[in-house]
Write a structure and sequence with these properties.
Length: 129
Protein backbone atom coordinates (compact mmCIF):
# COMPACT_ATOMS: atom_id res chain seq x y z
CA UNK A 1 0.00 0.00 0.00
CA UNK A 2 1.34 3.42 -0.96
CA UNK A 3 2.01 5.51 2.14
CA UNK A 4 1.16 9.20 2.25
CA UNK A 5 4.07 10.93 3.96
CA UNK A 6 6.73 8.63 2.51
CA UNK A 7 9.66 10.55 1.09
CA UNK A 8 12.87 10.02 -0.85
CA UNK A 9 15.96 12.19 -1.31
CA UNK A 10 18.37 12.34 -4.26
CA UNK A 11 21.61 14.32 -4.42
CA UNK A 12 23.85 15.61 -7.17
CA UNK A 13 26.84 17.86 -7.53
CA UNK A 14 26.60 20.93 -9.77
CA UNK A 15 29.09 20.50 -12.61
CA UNK A 16 29.74 22.32 -15.87
CA UNK A 17 27.53 19.70 -17.57
CA UNK A 18 24.32 20.45 -15.63
CA UNK A 19 24.39 24.23 -15.78
CA UNK A 20 21.91 26.40 -17.65
CA UNK A 21 24.70 27.33 -20.06
CA UNK A 22 25.44 23.67 -20.86
CA UNK A 23 21.85 22.46 -21.29
CA UNK A 24 20.66 25.50 -23.21
CA UNK A 25 18.14 26.85 -20.72
CA UNK A 26 20.09 30.06 -20.16
CA UNK A 27 23.50 31.61 -20.58
CA UNK A 28 24.84 31.45 -17.03
CA UNK A 29 26.97 28.69 -15.46
CA UNK A 30 24.66 27.84 -12.54
CA UNK A 31 22.49 24.76 -11.84
CA UNK A 32 19.88 24.60 -14.60
CA UNK A 33 16.18 24.71 -13.79
CA UNK A 34 15.48 21.64 -15.99
CA UNK A 35 18.17 19.72 -14.10
CA UNK A 36 16.67 20.72 -10.75
CA UNK A 37 13.25 19.56 -11.90
CA UNK A 38 14.69 16.29 -13.21
CA UNK A 39 16.30 15.67 -9.82
CA UNK A 40 12.98 16.35 -8.07
CA UNK A 41 11.11 14.08 -10.47
CA UNK A 42 13.72 11.37 -9.99
CA UNK A 43 13.26 11.55 -6.22
CA UNK A 44 9.50 11.15 -6.68
CA UNK A 45 9.89 8.23 -9.08
CA UNK A 46 12.21 6.41 -6.68
CA UNK A 47 9.95 7.18 -3.73
CA UNK A 48 6.98 5.60 -5.49
CA UNK A 49 8.92 2.66 -6.96
CA UNK A 50 9.29 1.00 -3.55
CA UNK A 51 5.50 0.52 -3.38
CA UNK A 52 4.85 -0.78 -6.91
CA UNK A 53 4.06 -4.35 -7.93
CA UNK A 54 6.33 -6.15 -10.37
CA UNK A 55 5.60 -5.03 -13.93
CA UNK A 56 4.40 -1.60 -12.81
CA UNK A 57 6.22 1.71 -13.06
CA UNK A 58 5.28 5.36 -12.88
CA UNK A 59 5.45 8.18 -15.38
CA UNK A 60 5.35 11.90 -14.86
CA UNK A 61 1.97 13.50 -15.41
CA UNK A 62 2.64 17.07 -14.33
CA UNK A 63 5.31 19.08 -12.57
CA UNK A 64 5.20 22.66 -11.34
CA UNK A 65 8.12 24.25 -9.58
CA UNK A 66 9.68 27.53 -8.62
CA UNK A 67 13.45 28.05 -8.86
CA UNK A 68 14.24 30.76 -6.34
CA UNK A 69 18.00 30.70 -5.86
CA UNK A 70 21.03 30.10 -8.09
CA UNK A 71 23.51 27.34 -7.25
CA UNK A 72 27.10 27.63 -8.50
CA UNK A 73 29.30 24.87 -9.90
CA UNK A 74 30.81 22.81 -7.08
CA UNK A 75 27.88 22.87 -4.66
CA UNK A 76 25.74 19.85 -3.82
CA UNK A 77 21.99 19.90 -4.51
CA UNK A 78 19.48 17.57 -2.87
CA UNK A 79 15.88 17.02 -3.90
CA UNK A 80 13.20 15.65 -1.60
CA UNK A 81 9.88 14.24 -2.80
CA UNK A 82 7.10 13.48 -0.32
CA UNK A 83 3.85 11.69 -1.17
CA UNK A 84 0.92 13.95 -0.31
CA UNK A 85 -2.05 12.19 -1.92
CA UNK A 86 -2.99 8.89 -3.56
CA UNK A 87 -6.02 8.67 -5.85
CA UNK A 88 -6.07 5.31 -7.61
CA UNK A 89 -3.24 5.36 -10.13
CA UNK A 90 -2.48 9.06 -9.49
CA UNK A 91 0.09 9.92 -6.84
CA UNK A 92 0.83 13.52 -5.87
CA UNK A 93 4.07 14.77 -4.35
CA UNK A 94 5.43 17.87 -2.67
CA UNK A 95 8.89 18.45 -4.12
CA UNK A 96 11.71 20.60 -2.76
CA UNK A 97 15.33 21.23 -3.69
CA UNK A 98 18.11 22.60 -1.51
CA UNK A 99 21.73 23.51 -1.99
CA UNK A 100 24.22 23.88 0.83
CA UNK A 101 22.91 27.40 1.54
CA UNK A 102 19.19 26.56 1.68
CA UNK A 103 16.01 26.22 -0.38
CA UNK A 104 16.41 26.68 -4.13
CA UNK A 105 13.07 25.41 -5.42
CA UNK A 106 9.76 23.82 -4.52
CA UNK A 107 6.56 22.70 -6.13
CA UNK A 108 4.18 19.84 -6.86
CA UNK A 109 4.47 16.74 -9.00
CA UNK A 110 1.96 14.15 -10.24
CA UNK A 111 2.97 10.63 -11.19
CA UNK A 112 0.74 8.04 -12.85
CA UNK A 113 1.15 4.32 -12.19
CA UNK A 114 1.22 2.29 -15.42
CA UNK A 115 1.92 -1.24 -16.58
CA UNK A 116 5.44 -0.98 -18.02
CA UNK A 117 4.98 -3.30 -21.03
CA UNK A 118 1.64 -1.78 -22.04
CA UNK A 119 3.05 1.74 -21.74
CA UNK A 120 6.11 0.90 -23.85
CA UNK A 121 3.94 -0.83 -26.46
CA UNK A 122 1.78 2.29 -26.74
CA UNK A 123 4.88 4.38 -27.36
CA UNK A 124 6.25 1.89 -29.92
CA UNK A 125 2.89 1.81 -31.74
CA UNK A 126 3.42 5.46 -32.69
CA UNK A 127 6.21 4.32 -35.03
CA UNK A 128 3.69 2.18 -36.96
CA UNK A 129 1.50 5.14 -37.86
Amino acid sequence: MIQVGASFELKTKVTEQNTALAVGSGDVPVFATPMMMALMEGAAAQCLAQFLEEGKTSVGGNISSSHVSATPVGMEVRAIATITEVDGKKVKFAIEAYDEAGLIGKGDHLRIIVTRDRFLQGAADKLQK
